Amino acid sequence: MQGSLIVNYLRDFSKNPSYLFKALYYLVSIVFIAAGILKIYDATGLMKALQQIPFLSNQLIVIIATMLPLLELGLGVGLLLRYKPAVILGLASGLFLAFWIISLYGFFSGFSGDCGCFGKLVESRFGWGMILRNFLLACATGYLWMQELHLQTKPF
Question: From its phi and psi, is residue 55 left (phi > 0), alpha (psi between -120 and 50) or beta?
Fold first, then answer.
């Protein structure tokens, strides 16, 4: 079983020799894993940022702050293992698109403080830098997702 997993991993990745594809793929994987682990370690920044959203109840804030790091970690590990990459990249694109929309909303609503995106390791305030980062990550995962869908339609 493990041998076939490695063979499938290498076969799938050898279909697309693009260095850009591979670099973005691993970058997104590492971003998800790092963000997930750092939020698991310290979610206070994330919870403070979520508390600024007026339509979220305290119960929903706790659920999001608990589940988001696990989702990010799962997506990152799933990407590294190449487990259903088209599905995971679709979810990742949607998540980064949601992050981009929230960063726009937070910036134009005047949110203050750190978003808690990377725990306490990296301070990330609502502003143009966060908006650009989330936009670029959404574009990168969208590109990877479309490339992965294209790879699946190619014959062996």
Answer: alpha
DSSP-based three-state secondary structure for 152: helix
Q: How many angstroms separate the CA atoms of 57 and 145, rounded?
A: 33
Measured between alpha carbons, how far is 89 from 143 in angstroms, rounded to an integer?
9
List % helix, strand, coil for the chain (3-state, nearest 5).
Answer: 75, 5, 20
Q: Which helix (H) or strand (E) holds 117?
A: strand 117-120
- As given in the structure block, the two tokens for residue 31 are 């971003």
Residues contacting 74, CB < 8 A, separation 6+: 36
Number of structural domains (the chain) is 1
Contact 123, 114 (CB under 8 A): yes
C-alpha 68/C-alpha 59 separation (Å) is 14
Question: Could you report the per-residue pLDDT of 120-146, keeping only the tens digit for each?
Answer: 777 888 899 999 999 999 999 999 999
Cα 36 to chain centroid, rounded = 9
Do the domain assignments include residue 6?
A: no
Q: Tell me the residue range of the domain where 108 lies.
A: 19-146
Domain membership of residue 3 (yes or no) is: no
